[in-house]
Amino acid sequence: MVAALIITAGRTARHNNFEPMREVGTIPAIQRIVMVFQLAGIERIVVVCGENGDKTEKLAANMNVVFLHSPRDAEMLDNVKIGLAYLRDKCSGALITHVNVPLFSAETVHALMAVESPVCVPLYQGSTGHPVLLNSKHFQAVLSYSGEHGLAGAIKSSGLRRCLVEVDDKGVTANIKGKENYEHLLAEHSLIELHPDIRIRLIREKPFYGPGPHQLLQLTEETNSLIEACRRTGISYSKGRKIIAIMEQQTGYSIIESKQGGNLGGHSSVTKEGKKLMRSYGEFCAEAKQYLQELFAKYFSH
Length: 302
Hints:
With 302 residues, the protein is an alpha/beta fold. It has helices at 29-39, 53-59, 76-87, 106-113, 139-143, 150-158, 211-223, 226-233, 237-251, 272-300; strands spanning 2-7, 23-24, 27-28, 45-49, 66-69, 93-98, 119-124, 127-128, 132-135, 162-166, 202-203, 207-209, 256-259, 267-270. It has 2 domains: 2-192, Spore Coat Polysaccharide Biosynthesis Protein SpsA, Chain A, CATH 3.90.550; 202-300, Winged helix-like DNA-binding domain superfamily/Winged helix DNA-binding domain (Arc Repressor Mutant, subunit A). The protein is globular, with a radius of gyration of 20 Å. It starts with a strand and ends with a helix.
C-alpha cells in the first residue's frame, strides 16, 4: 500500500512559507491535494503541520488524514523525516509533496505508482516536480541524511536510483507561490471530472460509525492512546470521548479499554468487539466501493 505525505510547514532555501489555506480554484490547497490523492486511491495520508497546524487541521477536518506536528523553525527536510519515520512500517512507499504544489493530477499519481524504482520523480517538458515517490525500503537513507540540500540532496547522497517519469501534467511544476499564472490548469484538472464520493456510515437509532470513528479506532490501536489518536485526527479529546460513547451506546458493548497511571502513564486499547467492528467495516467498505464505482460508471459514463 502506497501512502501520501504532505508537508505544510518548514524552511528551505526557496520556500520561506507554505500556504495550505490559499484557495486554488474553489477550495484550499490542502483540501485539493488530499482529494487528488484520495481520487487516486491513496487511503493513508499524513500531513505534517507547523505552528499554524490548528488552521490546517480545521481545513482538512473530516478528510481522514493523520496530522503530525513539527517544532518551530524546523527545516522542510526535518518535516519529511517526521512523516517518513511515522510511515516506515505502514506502507510500501510514500508520495511526498509540499502544499504549494497542489495541481498535479490523479493520473500522475497512477503513473508514478506503476513504476518499480527506489525513487520516482514526475518530469514535465524537462522539469522535475512533485509528488516524489520513495520506496519504503529506502526511507532510512533519507532519515540518516544530515546534509543541507533537502530531500533531493538526501536522495543524491544516498546513491538511490532515480526514475524520471514523463507526464503530460504541468501541475507537477506549478507552484502557487510563483509568479506564473496557474489558473488555466484548473480547467483540465482531475477534480473537474465528475466522480462519486462514497462515505459509508452505520446507523441504529443514531449514526455511530463511519470513516472518522474508524480512523479514530485505528489510531488508538496504533498508539495505545486515545488522547494521541485524537491529536492525530485533529479533534479534541472531549470530542473523541463523545464519539466513543455514542459507539458504545449504539452497539451495546465496550469499544475502548483504558488503564490509568503506572510507569507508562496509562494507555487505551480497542476491545475484541471493537476490533471485529473495525475489520467488518473495513472489508464491507472495500467491497461496497468497488461495486458502487461500477454502478457509477453505468449511470454517469455517457
